[in-house]
Each structure stands twice: as structure tokens, then as C-alpha cells.
Write a structure and sequence with these properties.
Blueprint (H helix, E strand, L loop, with lengths): L8 E4 L5 H12 L3 E6 L2 H12 L5 E5 L5 H8 L11 E4 L14 H29 L2 E6 L12 H17 L3 H4 L3 E8 L5 H14 L3 H10 L9 H11 L11 E4 L9
Parallel strand pairs: 1-2, 1-4, 2-3, 4-5, 5-6, 6-7
Helix pairs in contact: 1-9, 4-5
Length: about 260
């Protein structure tokens, strides 16, 4: 299927590895030019080198996208503040797990900055230009915890749910929806990424069980009986960015192998 993305400009956050890199790969395969962003320059440059083999323009910007200075550096790459981005994939590392009794105001503000306020700033900077050009796709990578909150992930639950509420309203404004600008959230479950491996390593150290034992037990809780891979996540992202997905907006799309048991 031709997705209509050739020559489009995409911005992808957290794109040096994991789900962000999966999205950047899928978009580049569809012919989009991609600006990839992450804090670690070495890993980002390595990702850029691989992505360039797909034949499109790949620009790497090693900045902290959660800061105003980081976002300014991105806007200078593609002709003005957000004016030429057709696709924006927001993605930042999730806040740490823990007991809510131990989180102070600074911990909450950091979580909100990364997982709610930064995506809102990126949306604000890009949607009007998208509406003028009659094409725009914004995908926020959030978490399955938005649908099924996890007690030890309270920082993530709160910040990402706040973003979901904001998107539910702004995506349905006539100025955006009628001008072919869509905003959707992608909610990943358990994917084979460094973050999942770190979580399982922590569980291994806490319980004394091997990482393999913990991984197998986790897989058994998923109807698909496996972890997702970043490339299939990226392909879902690319479809939501496509011309064919123009009638999908304001949605929370869960990709978790059937782990969430609810009907809605």
C-alpha cells in the first residue's frame, strides 16, 4: 500500500533506539525525510547512518527536546519554527517507577515536562502550519498504562493521562480536523526495548529470579504470547501518518498483543 508519505518531513523524538527508532525507520521506508532527535549524540549518529541507507534525507539533532533550548535547535533545522514539519512523533522516556509517597514536587514537574508539556509545545508549534498546507499528522507515543494504570507508574499514569485529555479536545477542533490534521496517541504495551529489559533486570535483582524466567512469565500474561518488536510498532505509526488514515483523529490506539482485557 502506498501511504502517500514520500517527500514529507517528519520529526521523531527519542529516535536513537527502541520505539522511536522503529517509527523513524518505517517513515523513512515510506519515503519521508526524517529529523531524528535524542540526547545521546553517539547512539543518534549511529541510528542516522543506518536510516540513510533507506534513501531519504535524515537529519540528526542531539538535544534534550524537553527543554525550550532543545526545541529551538530543532526548529532551526527545517525552515522556521515548525513550519515545514508534516509529521511529528512525540516520544520521551518515561519517568521512573516508585511509591507516590516518595515523589516530591520536582519529580512531578519533571514527569509533566517530559510526558505532557513537551508534546503540547510540539503540537502548538506545528499544527497551524499543517492546517495551512492541508496535511498534518501528530502521533504521541504514550503507554498502555493510560488505559490500565499501573500502581508503581504513578508519575507516568498522571502525566500521560493529562496529555490524553488535552489531545481529546484539541484534535477535534474544526480548524484542524477539517484541514486534514490528525492527532492520535499510540499506547504501547510490552515491547522488546531497552526500557523493558531494564525493568526486568530490576525485577530480577529484587526477586532473585533469572531475567529469562521473568520474561517468560510476562509473555504468558499476553494473549499473543510474545513481546512486540519496535518495527511493527513503527509500521502502525506510519499507517496513522498516512493519507489513508485521514479519518482517524483524537484516538488512543492500544498496541499490546491483547493484554488489556477491557472492551473499551
Amino acid at each position: 500500500m502506498e501511504l502517500g508519505l514520500k517527500g514529507k518531513w517528519a520529526l521523531v523524538g527519542g529516535a536513537s533506539k527502541g520505539l522511536g527508532l522503529g517509527c523513524a525507520q518505517s517513515l523513512a521506508r515510506e519515503g519521508a525525510n526524517v529529523v531524528i532527535v535524542a540526547r545521546g549524540a553517539e547512539a543518534l549518529d549511529a541510528a542516522a547512518s543506518e536510516l540513510r541507507k533507506l534513501g531519504t534525507t535524515i537529519l540528526a539533532v542531539a538535544v534534550d527536546i524537553t527543554t525550550p533550548e532543545g526545541r529551538e535547535a530543532i526548529w532551526s533545522v527545517v525552515d522556521g519554527p515548525g513550519k515545514n514539519f508534516d509529521i511529528v512523533v512525540t516520544n520521551a522516556g518515561g519517568p521512573p517507577p516508585g511509591d507516590f509517597r516518595n515523589w516530591d514536587r520536582d519529580a512531578w514537574i519533571k514527569a509533566l515536562d517530559a510526558n505532557m508539556l513537551t508534546p503540547i509545545e510540539l503540537i502548538k508549534a506545528t499544527v497551524d502550519g499543517m492546517a495551512e498546507r492541508k496535511f498534518g499528522r501528530i502521533i504521541n507515543i504514550t503507554s498502555s498504562a493510560v488505559k490500565a494504570p499501573i500502581d508503581i507508574l504513578g508519575l507516568s499514569n498522571g502525566a500521560r493521562s493529562g496529555l490524553s485529555g488535552f489531545v481529546a479536545g484539541v484534535a477535534r477542533t474544526v480548524k484542524l480536523a477539517s484541514n486534514n490534521v490528525t492527532i492520535n496517541n499510540l499506547l504501547p504495551g510490552a515491547y522488546d526495548t531497552d526500557r523493558l529489559k531494564t525493568t526486568m533486570k530490576g525485577a530480577s535483582e529484587k526477586t532473585g529470579q533469572s531475567i529469562d524466567t521473568i520474561a517468560e512469565a510476562r509473555k504468558k500474561t499476553i494473549p499473543a504470547q510474545r513481546f512486540g518488536n519496535p518495527q511493527e510498532f513503527g509500521d502502525t505509526c506510519a499507517f496513522l501518518c498516512s493519507a489513508q488514515a485521514s479519518y482517524i483523529t483524537g484516538q488512543n490506539i492500544l498496541t499490546d498483543g491483547g493484554a488489556y482485557a477491557g472492551a473499551f
